[in-house]
Amino acid sequence: MGGAITGMRLQRGDIQDLLTYYQALGFEALPISLAAIRNIKQDVEAGTHGVGRKSLLEDLKEYIGDCQRCKLAQYRTNLVFGAGSASARLMFIGEAPGKEEDLQGLPFVGDAGMLLTRLIVKMGMRREDVYIANILKCRPPLNRDPEDDEISACREFIEKQIRIIRPQIIMALGRVAAQVLLEMPNLRITSARGHFFDYKGIPIMPTFHPAYLLRNPKDKILTWADAQKVMAKISSLTARRTHS
Ligand code: URA
Ligand code: URA
């Protein structure tokens, strides 16, 4: 982000000058809501994060709006934005809403979602502690695989969600999520799972999709092994942060 200002320490007055300059150029609005700015200010003062992130997520939701950017819009009941903690350390990213998700407007609330919830609990967390979202925000008809034009139209949203939340780790659920996030169209989930990859500086662990695990319960043990690696990584990253 903002390559132009790296290496330069901005002072308060610089921002004021910049705003005056933008106003002189005729700009009347910044692409951020006043509410978001106020929340960021509160975050800075309180030394916490999450409140600003929460309203940035709300801004993003507003920006997506009644999305008509791809052909899936015509089939949906609800757009499924994502759910969970804006300051989550761990983010789960699936493929696309299914039937139940489309009806409720929430991610992973069907059978696969129940299995995901059990995994999260087994990892010692609650659903509210993590953030859950999908690559596609709208359900493909009959749950078919996402098509390229749909991924192109939608990927900006998951990228922005990741940038806002800045999780310590991402678990990519299934082949499609891993392929899209890592831009590795030939990635095979069976060989990629269990290994950390890099997404813009964030470690990402591909694992089996919970819907796949419902059909192949013998592989649950492998996803549990992946989850244990993720938990160990979170512990080590957290320890490093508190000691520095
Ligand atoms: N499968 C997904 O990939 N995402 C959901 O939200 C539900 C099922
Ligand atoms: N195929 C997929 O697309 N995802 C899985 O998790 C397993 C097999």
Q: What spatial form do the alpha-carbon principal axes imply?
A: globular
Low-confidence stretches: none
Listed once per kind, the bound small molecules are: uracil
Strand residue percentage? 5-15%
**How many strands appear in the DSSP assignment?**
6
Write a brief structural summary:
The chain is built from ten helices and six strands. With about 240 residues, it is an alpha/beta fold. Strand 5 (about 195-200) and strand 6 form a beta hairpin.
Give a topology summary:
Elements: H1 12-24, H2 34-46, H3 51-64, E1 83-84, E2 90-94, H4 99-104, H5 111-122, E3 131-134, H6 148-165, E4 169-173, H7 175-182, H8 189-192, E5 197-199, E6 202-207, H9 210-215, H10 220-243
Parallel strand pairs: 2-3, 2-4, 4-6
Antiparallel strand pairs: 1-3, 5-6
The structure holds uracil (URA) (2 copies).
Mind explaining what this structure looks like?
With 244 residues, the chain is of the alpha/beta class. The protein folds into two domains: 4-63; 74-243, 3-Layer(aba) Sandwich (Uracil-DNA Glycosylase, subunit E), CATH 3.40.470.10. 48% of the residues lie in helices and 10% in strands. It has ten helices and six strands; from the N terminus they run αααββααβαβααββαα. The chain has helices at residues 12-24, 34-46, 51-64, 99-104, 111-122, 148-165, 175-182, 189-192, 210-215, 220-243, and strands at 83-84, 90-94, 131-134, 169-173, 197-199, 202-207. The chain has a six-stranded mixed beta sheet, with helices on both faces. Strand 5 (197-199) and strand 6 (202-207) form a beta hairpin. Helix 3 (51-64) packs antiparallel against helix 6 (148-165). The chain is globular. It starts with 11 loop residues before the first helix and ends with a helix. The relative contact order is 0.11. One uracil is lined by residues 174-175, 189, 208-209, 212.
